[in-house]
Amino acid sequence: MVTIWKKYIPCKEKNTFLKCELYYSLGGYNYFTYKQEPRGYYLSVSPVEKSGCMESYVAFSGIKKLMVEVKRKSKKKESEAIEMIEKSLPELVDVVVSKNGLKVA
Question: Domain range spanning residue 21?
């Protein structure tokens, strides 16, 4: 997993943030979901609690979405995925906020 873009959205709960990340994944078998995942660029949103330089999270509390499926990593497809963030991020944030009972500040 190679992180390309990262943003933290503060929540009203103390020390809680939504960690939004665009990353490149080689794909393959996911041992947690028992499913085959395609290679590509993914956007993920997860609630994290920050204290100092430490970050903690609860497993399966976030969500991810395949932005662009690729056969190999490329700058062109990476740029495509970055352009798609603006459109996809609000819907992922809404899902995570409602799933975890959070409120965005």
Answer: 2-100
21-35 in b/e form (b: 16+ CB < 10 A) is bbbbbeeeeeeeeee
DSSP reduced 3-state for 15:
coil
The pLDDT score that the predictor gives to residue 46 is 97
Q: Give which of 8, 1, 19, 7 is closest to 63, Cα–Cα.
A: 19
In total, how many domains does the chain have?
A: 1
Query: Does residue 105 fall inside a structural domain?
Result: no
Which residue type occupies 38?
A: P
The model carries a pTM of 0.93
Domain-embedded: residue 85: yes
* Residue-wise pLDDT tens digits, 37-93: 999 999 999 999 999 899 999 999 999 999 999 999 999 999 999 999 999 999 999
